[in-house]
Amino acid sequence: MTMFHEGLLLRAYDLVAAFTDANAKLATAESCTGGLVAALITEVPGSSAVLDRGFVTYSNRAKADLLGVRDSALSQHGAVSELVARQMAEGALRSSTADVAVAITGIAGPGGGSLEKPVGLVHFASATSAATRHREMRFGDIGRSEIREASVSVALEMLMEGLADYTAGDDGDAAA
Amino acid sequence: MTMFHEGLLLRAYDLVAAFTDANAKLATAESCTGGLVAALITEVPGSSAVLDRGFVTYSNRAKADLLGVRDSALSQHGAVSELVARQMAEGALRSSTADVAVAITGIAGPGGGSLEKPVGLVHFASATSAATRHREMRFGDIGRSEIREASVSVALEMLMEGLADYTAGDDGDAAA
C-alpha cells in the first residue's frame, strides 16, 4: 500500500532504475509541490542510491538562502517565473552532489493567482552541468491537490530529460 | 481529492491553524520520510504562512552539509540514532527562520536493517530555542510505505509538542 497513485509510482520506479543504471544522482528543489517529488521518489526501495538531497523552498528567503536565487530575480520576475525556476534548479545542482536537479515553482491555489499568473501556472526547470531546460505549464484552476500532482508528473519527465542531457553531455538549451 | 489519507490531512489542517494562531514558523528535516511531512503540510492552503523550508537529507553528506550533523555522530552512532535526530532538528532550526523544527531518521526497509537497528526503527526530534525533544519508535517490519506514513503521524505530534515548547518558552528536555 502506498499513498501515491500506481501510475506515478511505477514511473518513479522507472526513474530510480534509470538513474541507478546511469550511476547518476539527483536533487530536487520544490516550491508548490512542497516535497511531493522527493517523497514519491523515496517511496522506491533503493532510492537512496540516486537521491542525494531535496530542498523544500517554500519561502522566498529559503529560495535565496539554500539555492542562491537572486533577490533581483524574485523582485523583478516573481517567485513563479522562468528565471526563478532556472535559478532554483541550477542552485540545487550547485548545492548538492547531484548530476541532475529539478525545480518546481507555481501557484497551486486556491489563493495567490492573478490575471497574468493564474492559479495552475507552474514553471519547471532541470539542470545538469551541460544544460538547463525550462517548461511552463498552465493546468488551470483544477484544484490544489490536482495541480500539485500534475506538477509531480511533469517533474519526473524533466528529470528523465535531464538524465538524457547528463548521459549525452548534450546542450539542452540548444535542443529545448 | 488528495493523495493523503483524510485523518492525516485533517491533522495537518489543525497543525497549520495552530502555528498560524501562534504566529510561529516551522521547518522539517527528513530522511526516511523523504519529504512526506513537508508535502502533507503544504497540501493545506495557507501553509506558506507557517512552513519556512524543508530539508530532505537522504545522504549522510546532505545531513552534514545542510544541517551541520557532525561526522563523529554519523560514524559513531549511525544515521539512525537519537544523536543524529537531535542534531538534524537543531540544525534545521539554526539553518532556517523557523521557531520549531522536526527531524525524522529511520530504516524504512525493506533492506538496511540489523539486529540492533531493525527495519521500522525511527528516531524523531523536535527543536525550539528552548528545548530539544526526542522520541524513538519501533514500528516493526510492517512495510516501507506503512513505516513512512506512521512516521509522518509521529512527526506531526512532535511538531505540536514543539509548538507547545515554543509558546511556553518551556524546557522540554526537563519535561520529556
Task: Walk me through this protein's architecture.
2 copies of one chain form a homodimer. Chain A has 176 residues and is α/β, with parallel strands linked by helices. The first copy, chain A, has one domain (6-168): Alpha-Beta Complex (Maf protein). In chain A, 45% of the residues lie in helices and 18% in strands. Chain A has helices at residues 6-21, 36-41, 60-67, 71-77, 82-94, 144-168, 172-175, and strands at 26-30, 51-56, 100-106, 121-127, 132-138. In chain A, strands 2-1-3-4-5 form a 5-stranded mixed sheet, sandwiched between helices. Chain A is globular, with a radius of gyration of 15 Å. Chains A and B meet through helix 2, strand 2, helix 3 and helix 6 of A and helix 2, strand 2, helix 3 and helix 6 of B. Strand 2 (51-56) of chain A pairs antiparallel with strand 2 (51-56) of chain B.
List keywords for this structure.
homodimer; 176 residues; alpha/beta; Maf protein; 5-stranded mixed sheet; 7 helices; 45% helix
Secondary-structure map with pairings?
The structure is a homodimer of 176-residue chains.
Chain A: H1 6-21, E1 26-30, H2 36-41, E2 51-56, H3 60-67, H4 71-77, H5 82-94, E3 100-106, E4 121-127, E5 132-138, H6 144-168, H7 172-175
Parallel strand pairs in A: 1-2, 1-3
Antiparallel strand pairs in A: 3-4, 4-5
Helix pairs in contact in A: 1-6
